[in-house]
User: Which sequence fits this backbone?
């Protein structure tokens, strides 16, 4: 499916789903860096995105301020020794895209966020010296994307779509890279 053909709400929903699915990557990074408050801040911001998508955000007043907070949360991989800074950065970049999309309805980043996610997965496979065809993570992620897009494109209310999309995106707490902190 050409993600550029989706309307703004659908694209924003897809980006939020990608972000939700990548949150365990950021959470693990924050745990390793001993910065749990950064994860809590990112979680609050993503929850605001979900509220917006459900049509339940009571005020847009603080949304712009969230970009300032997010700028502080995006890790610079060159300043860290562990590879986890890269997927953590991707997660925060996706969250920034969501907030920017709320503030400016001309921003439609679904294709860019999908590409970034695919490239990171392929990079991980290369580090593990395996092909995407050999990895169950690749097929699992593509199945997730298809299920998310089917929900987003269904003729349900926005609230109903998001109600179903959040648990799908949470994917039992497992990220697209196979990271799970719920064990």
Assistant:
């Amino acid at each position: 499916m050409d993600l550029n053909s989706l309307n703004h709400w659908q694209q924003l929903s897809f980006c939020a789903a990608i972000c939700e699915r990548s949150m365990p990557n950021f959470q693990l990074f924050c745990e390793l860096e001993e910065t749990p408050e950064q994860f809590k801040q990112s979680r609050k911001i993503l929850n605001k995105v979900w509220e917006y998508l459900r049509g339940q955000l009571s005020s847009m007043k603080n949304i712009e301020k969230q970009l300032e907070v997010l700028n502080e949360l995006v890790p610079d991989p060159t300043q860290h020794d562990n590879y986890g800074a890269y997927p953590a950065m991707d997660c925060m970049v996706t969250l920034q895209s969501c907030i920017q999309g709320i503030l400016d309805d001309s921003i439609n980043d679904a294709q860019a966020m999908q590409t970034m996610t695919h490239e990171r997965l392929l990079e991980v496979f290369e580090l593990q010296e395996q092909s995407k065809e050999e990895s169950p993570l690749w097929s699992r992620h593509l199945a997730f994307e298809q299920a998310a897009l089917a929900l987003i494109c269904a003729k349900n209310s926005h609230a109903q779509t998001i109600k179903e999309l959040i648990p799908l995106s949470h994917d039992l707490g497992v990220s697209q890279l196979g990271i799970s902190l719920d064990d």
Q: What stands out?
A: The chain has seven helices and no strands. The chain has one domain: 3-173. The first helix runs from residue 8 to 33.
